[in-house]
# Entry
Amino acid sequence: MAAETGGGEDPYKVRLTPAFSVLVGGHRGGRLERTWFSHGDVAARRASLQATLEQVLRRLYGAASEHFAGTDAVYADVPPVMRLLTGRASGTDEMARRVAGRLDCDLHLISTDEEMAGEPGVKPRRGVVLGAQPAIGEETMRESVYHLRDDLALTFSDMLVAVWDGHEPHEVASGVGHMIRDAVRRRQGVILLYLHPERDTPQLLMLTAARVTDAALGRLEVMEVTPAALLSLFDPLELDSRRIDQWMERILCPFTPALDEDSTENRLIRRIDDQVGVAHYMVWWALWLLGVLRLTRRRRRPPGLWNWIRGSWMWLQAMLEPPARSQPSRVVELLCTDVRPEMRRHWLLNRIHAMFSALAMLDVPGALRALRPPPARGSRYNAVRPRPEREAGHPIREPAFEHFFNWSDEQASIFDARRKDDTWMIYYAAALAVFAAVAGALQVWPAAPGEVPYFWIAVEFVLLHFIVRRVLKARYRDHHGRWIRFRFLAEQLRYLRLGYPLLVIPETFSAPYWRPENRRPEGRPMELHSELESAELWVLQRLLVAEGMPQDRRGHVPYRMSEHNEAALEYIQDVLGEHRDYYRRSAHNLEMNHKYLHRLAFILFFSTFLVVTLHFFFHLPWSLFFTAFFPAWGAAIHGILAQNEVVRISAMSGQVWRQLSVLEESFALHKQVQADYEVEQTRWMRTEELRELVGAATHILSDANRYWRSLLRHNQADLPA
# Structure
């Protein structure tokens, strides 16, 4: 199933695949036999546990299906994918596999090295075997391998259903206990089938969202995690409880409030967007009074004067201090905004900007090319396809992120162009306003000598009005913020693709994206609200869950990760080379832009210096153009460079390019050492080395992206100094 559907090949439209994944984990058969089963009728307790597990899963899948219905604004109109993710061990995993055979869901399996015994009616759709082995000289695998498996399973799931007996030492030590703790840290939904020794049926407990506060998570991070500390975050659960539906809304549909057309936020935005200017308002009334509007489709009566004045005041306030959009609205805005009207509206300005930028670099052919329609950009994903000579060894089926990456990259490029166009127009308009002031002072034609230069006064007024309006509009439309958000989506997908064959998943795809917020409405008791903290994190994690774990390119199940070390190394080198070239081009282009614009500014200031020097010896009335307009023009160029942080971003791109080049050499050296020397290593040890190298690359790229976002987060459009 594709990670996004509904957009086809349209680069401006995407929809998420409706997919819901439940991870089932718990104790193995041996521990269940020793603890809970041994305190009563073994067969009855076993049947009760399996029946309860099946009831819980049916309830979760039913609730997920209900929430997917009617959400075609965000999700694709395709049958939802219900997934059960578990392991290959005995006990809880075995029960989950049997339940999957009776439920209409896809079974995905993940394990370290265990092989699953054949079970009637159970055929996994997808599976991953890490291929872990004990280190040389050791008989058992290290605990870190099991923690890695559980961490990956949580990353590819929405909710955890855990079978836990609570029999721990003072601190939680079992694998399922650590899994519950990690799920709570991520603020994932957790349902416990708690096995009390005195009860013949599991006790259902569910994580209470109101208790997963920042303070509670901080306590889990720095203090010992005891069974009592974990259980204090849970409350008893009935399967018909609304709490399950609330968790489904939190996980699958946090954007629901934004779809309400009558919400306070949507009404405010519509009111601001519908506000018309003075001339429009006067023409509207004139056409209404003359009866012209009654003959057309637009028969709505214009608002009264007082309502129009109130709306204008609201519009001005919104322009001066734009209202912050809520994160649910951000989700809808990210996935549903059609930017094509914006492209058509600003095509001419973008072409003029490109022409003047080329002229500033003394690139006349480039200026002429800028006036032509831009060529289609095509795919920027450059998906790695298996070459004929290594087709049999290519590790994975390329994940279905290509369309989503191209979409987010295209959106980011459009809003980046809008942001740069606005910056260029604002600063150059400021320089032209100085030119108009100088021309008026010198009474340049068409101003008549000896009279008030009304023409240049009008030109200066129009330019100043244009600057203020353009700044306010740019801040309200949030071109800068949209550029940051779409670029973040595209870059995170780059990093995910790099480590996907070896399951090196960036932290972004497991970070909590919501937090509890307790509100006390006036005159009413305290209410819990789940506040979405990051629309981008939610979208990225929905993409990863919808895609699921890697698949063997040849269709084999399971995908055996450690058996593809050489093929994975070649795949990673290809993707890493793409990243390196991207940052090399970025550093080169930004450096050239800075070089030519800095040279132009130097020429302007040097010309001013020459004219001022000549003015000591000659009376030059026109020297005011050089002493006022040229410095203003040079200051505009400096403002454009500073606003876009060209120097620092160029230096950052160059540094990342060099780091990736060194890392690529490290990969090549690693490959050569493996080929030339007899190194006593297990296959899993080589896989771990590769994962460490990929982790280093992901760390470099993530640090660069984090620095870039912090550098440009507050560089909104602003009035020239």
In short: The first strand starts at residue 4 and ends at 5. The first helix runs from residue 29 to 34. Residues 222 and 294 are 70 Å apart (CA to CA). Confidence is low (pLDDT under 50) at residues 1-7.
